[in-house]
Amino acid sequence: MEALRATYGDDSSDSDSETPTPPTLATESKSRKEETLASPLPPPPLSLLDPPNSLGSLDYLQTGQPSRVRSFPHVEGNYALHVYIPVYIPSTSKREMSQFLKRVASSFSGLHVVDIDVPLNILCKEEHKLDQVALGREFHISLGRTVPIRVHQIDSIVTMLRQKLQFQKRYWIDFNKWEVFVNDDQTRTFLSLEVITGGLSEITKQIQAVNEVYKLHNLPEFYKDPRPHISLAWAVGDLSGSLKKVVEEETKTSSLGGATMWNIKDVEHIKKATKLLQYL
Fold first, then answer.
1. I need a labelling partner for 41 at 20 to 30 A (CA). Which of 16, 25, 128, 225 fits?
2. Opening angle at CA 107, ends 178 and 228, nearest 5
3. Distance CA 156, CA 152 (A)
4. Is residue 251 domain-shared with residue 113, that is, in the same domain?
5. Is 229 a catalytic residue?
6. What pLDDT, on the 0 to 100 scale, is given for residue 41?
7. 39-54 pLDDT tens trace
8. Does residue 154 lie in a domain region?
9. Are the beta carbons of 176 and 268 closer than 8 angstroms?
10. With contact defined as beta carbons under 8 Å apart, do 122 and 130 qualify?
11. Does one domain contain both 8 and 146?
12. What is the rounded CA–CA span in Å between residue 146 and residue 131?
C-alpha cells in the first residue's frame, strides 16, 4: 500500500500542497529492493523432497538399510559394460510368484528387491505394490561379466557384439527352478529363478559369443559353467545356506516348482543391451 500511495498520492488529501512528491526511479528501485529482501522466499513444494521414482506413501527407505559394494573401483573415464537379455515377467505368472515371495519373506528376513533395494517384507504388506515394484520391472539374464572399459573400446565392442548376436532366432526360455546364488565377493546373496531346460542351449551359445568379443579386448570372460538366471531379491553377506533351506521348504509346498515359459526375441534385446554403457 505504501508503494501505491507513493505513486498515486493519499486519497484522504485533496490539497495540492499536501500531495507528496512523486518518487524518482532510483527511490522506487530502492524501495522494491528493500521489500524483496524483507520478504522471505516461499517454502519449496513438498514434492521436491521426495526422491525420483518415488514408490508411494510407504516408508520404504528405512534407516540402517544395508549398502551394496562396488564390483570394481571408480576410475575417471571408465564405462561399465553389461551385456544381457532383458526379461519381463508375464502377468499370468506374477500371482504365483508373488505368493512364493511372500512365504519366503515371512521365513527369511533381510531380503531386498533387486536394483531398487526396497525391503521385500514391506512390499509384501500390499500385494499390488509387490506385483508392481518387485515383479513389474525389467530383469536380466547376464551374457557376460559387468566390466569397466575405456571410451576408445566402445565402438569396437558394440560393433562386434551386434555382428555376433543380431541374427539370433526367437526361442523359449523356461525359468523352472528357484535357486540361491552368491556373488564373487560373497557380499550379497540372491534369490533367483534359474534356466535349466528350455532356452539354456541358446543362452549358452550367446555367452560364448560374448566371451569371444571380451577376449579380443582383454576383458575377463564369463564363468566356465554358466547358470543363466534372473535375480529377484538379495540380502547382505553370504546367507546362502539358510536361504536355501527356506527356498527348498517353500518349493515343496508350492505349485510353482518352476515359474513359467515365455518367448524371447533377442534381436530386440541385444540392441538394448549394446546401449548399456554407463559412465561410472
1. 25
2. 15
3. 8
4. yes
5. yes
6. 53
7. 555 544 434 444 444 4
8. yes
9. no
10. no
11. no
12. 28
Q: Which three cell numbers stand for residue 42?
A: 516461499
Please report which helix (H) or strand (E) contains residue 157, including its range: helix 154-165
> In angstroms, what CA-CA distances link 157 with 78, 202, 274?
14, 21, 9
How many residues would you count in the chain? 280
Residues 21 and 119 in one domain: no
pTM: 0.70
Give pairs for 75-78: CB < 8 Å, separation 24+.
Answer: 75/148, 75/280, 77/150, 77/151, 78/148, 78/149, 78/150, 78/279, 78/280
Which candidate in 140, 152, 217, 269 is catalytic? 140
Residue 198 lies in a domain: yes
Cβ atoms 198, 172 nearer than 8 A = yes
Q: Is 155 inside any structural domain?
A: yes
Stretches where the chain sits below pLDDT 50 are: 1-20, 43-58, 60-64, 265-280
CA dist., res. 84 & res. 115, Å (int): 15
Cα 117 to chain centroid distance, Å, stands at 8
Q: What whole-number distance in Å separates Cα of residue 85 and Cα of residue 87?
A: 6
**Cα dihedral 95→98→103→104 (10° resolution):** 140
Cα separation, 136 vs 91, in Å, equals: 9
Q: Give the separation between CA 134 and CA 112, rounded to whole angstroms.
A: 9
Is 140 assigned a catalytic role? yes
Classify 279 as helix, strand or coil: strand
The answer to whether position 66 is within a domain reads no
